[in-house]
């Protein structure tokens, strides 16, 4: 059974953003709790801290029509566009990435499951979400600029191929990112960390396959076959139901914030990216600066003891040549490590322990703690979970002690990675081989037979799926489900299941269980309102609207509609080809064209005509500031919707 259909995850500590320890930890619930966007899920089965990301929901559908590195129709052009957007693929194969492809604008869904044939792989460079700047010191003030990402069934391959040095050639990189979920993502042959998050929060990894970081990856430190890292200001990070294999360290590495970061010359407290601050050679002002920076950074980088979840994963054939490495926790992190299956491999040294603390003694190490439940080593669950932990770890919290800090039940310990469906589907040649090797307990750490830039096998090609109206749903799929394949209507909900038609299609392509609809049920709750400007949702002319006389605040008579007709009511500020302003939409069922709906905008009524199951009001040139949108007639169907406009 797929992870997303089995998981009931309700256990996490919430981290305070102040320097004081959290007083009332709150849980991160799992996949249960309703269907459709009103349930707060990115897709059916989304779990962890990033499960509520909505990505590009409600925005523009952008098609990738070629495998070029840049230019019209390219993947780069699609992800570097602005505004809410859903990226779908008309092509299959390898898509070249040059260096770091910076993706700064959020409200983005990358739906690699939409590609024909064997899907797509991003080859040769790093997908860098957020602001990537290797020269910005980690101690600088957090500045979240990229929010709300959904990435599914994508592959990252050999990110160091297009750079002269493999440092920071991560498979996927997050810097200053808030609210993101990566589902069924595959990463192989990274030259630095396989996946890296810094100064980011509310991040979910689930059902992912991360393997074979390179020994020969052009890293300035030499061999650097390292797995995922969540570091320096990152918190509320979860990895659930993933498969990680064939590397040395950082599977994963979870780093807290109890350290000072400095950029002074060596010998005076130089910042070290790999661990705690090196103590200054002498006391005096340098020592006092260090203490001052420590206090400052505890406020700037996030909670002093950030929380991480590592649950239900399979980890195979890891541990460096010194016999250590695996799941590492350091520098004030609070980690929940539960129900993971650790397996020795052909390159694992005898005596290897899968969980450890940082290997550089320093006072900044204090405050780290882990909670352990249900972990196994080579198929055996030891009588004491403590026996799985390297001795230099600073503190291990017994389950009975740690449970008193939680406000929800423990997670479902029966959930493990589903190795038949982990990673991007369908499995390409790389993932299929790695999983076969795991079944035979074979494989090699760091892929020693290859170096950065070697050819990467491409996913199988496939014919594009005809989509005449360019709404992201193939014509055949729309016709089979009684939808109109000639109308651009990605956000219509014909079957009344709470998910838009486009989301139904993408969820089916991802293998999610189909969510049944009920057009006779009570209206769904209003969708969340995004403050991000929205592109034009529909190329057709907007419906006719009739302004009511000034000062009139009563419903227009004779609308002939009731709450049972209302499926969804939403409003937002937007920017489009026709200018900036406010848009309000009422999605209806059983409403004949020509019926009227009355919407109040800051107390002024506007009456719009229903067309094709929707009534759309648009006001251009809306003033910056807060606005209140209300559905007046039919009355009592939805709460007021607050909208905040930037005036851009």
Polypeptide structure, described:
The chain is mostly beta strands. It is 8% helix and 27% strand. It has seven helices and 36 strands. The chain has an eleven-stranded parallel β-sheet with strand order 1-2-5-8-11-14-17-20-23-26-28. Strand 30 (566-576) and strand 31 form a beta hairpin. The longest helix has 16 residues, at 285-300. Mean pLDDT is 74; it is low at 1-35, 133-141, 260-300, 398-415 and 522-559.
Continuous helix count: 7
Mean pLDDT: 74
**Proportion of β residues?**
25-35%
Our Rg estimate from Cα atoms comes to 26 Å
Helicity range: under 10%
Going across the biggest sheet, name each strand in turn. 1-2-5-8-11-14-17-20-23-26-28
Structural class: mainly beta
Number of strands: 36
* Shape annotation: globular
Provide the low-confidence segments as ranges: 1-35, 133-141, 260-300, 398-415, 522-559
Mind summarizing the main beta sheet?
11 strands, parallel
